[in-house]
Amino acid sequence: MAQQLGQYLNPQAASIEEYQEFLLEVLQAEIDSNSDPAVVYPILKRRQHLLDDTFAQLLQAYARYVFSQGKAEDVADIAEMIQNLCIDISEFPLGSRANNLEITITGYQTLLEVYIRDAFPYEWARLQNNLGLAYLYRIRGERADNLESAIAAYILSLEVYIRDAFPYEWARSQNNLGNAYISRIRGERADNLESAIAAYILSLEVYIRDSFPYDWAGTQTNLGIAYDNRIFGERADNLELAIAAYNLSLEVYTRDSFPYEWARSQNNLGIAYGNR
């Protein structure tokens, strides 16, 4: 792998060599650790100054090269490794958040050149869901455009993630779609909130408390926020629905087990009671 990359890049400057060494090191760590953040993150931390547009371009060039040279089974393994790296970079708490998300988006878009829907439907849908997350939180570009891209990606993922075949993934994409609609800038605010509520309610058909308590509580919180901001319907009724959803989330979000989530739901509950 190192030889392939070196031959392709033929670096002319020490700075490019440093990027190359970083990419190879972190990709090898993904392989050796089975994508364990405890192993990958220290490398990202040490080289966080290299997480920039040049790294994104290098990752894309490397991916396209090995995809064009490798056997089908090798390509699948390398694509999985690169996707795991993109996930780790998207969740990496240090460095430039904007840069990290651009690297992630570039990586996902490059992987979609390999993970085509007809040949790899599950992987394609997973990428669409992950791409939606990256666009949802993207810092560069117009916020309205990014949210539209997120919504489009989630809707695409749901073309494969149907409830009967992939119930958990379907519920996850529905919840993510709700998050995008609740933040949406374009369209009517009232309609967007109704779309968010509908998506959360669908998600809760699979995210039941006994099977997926954390996901269930998170979606209850999201649903509470949507009802708290709802424009359609009676304000008093919407506030009662919001309060009920927040209280349900607190059945799982206990202070000892999930202090951050508990505090967030308590804060949301206080706002709802204040508006009651």
What is the CA-CA span between the terminal residues? Answer: 61 Å
> Which class best fits the helix and strand makeup?
mainly alpha
Strand tally, please? 0
> Largest beta sheet, briefly?
none
Mean pLDDT: 94
Give the amount of beta strand, in percent: under 5%
**Rg result:** 21 Å
**N-to-C series of helices and strands:** HHHHHHHHHHHHH
The poorly predicted ranges are 10-14
Broad shape: elongated
What proportion of the residues is helical, as a percent range?
Answer: over 70%
H/I helix tally: 13
Q: Keywords, please?
A:
single chain, 276 residues, mainly alpha, 13 helices, 76% helix, Tetratricopeptide repeat protein
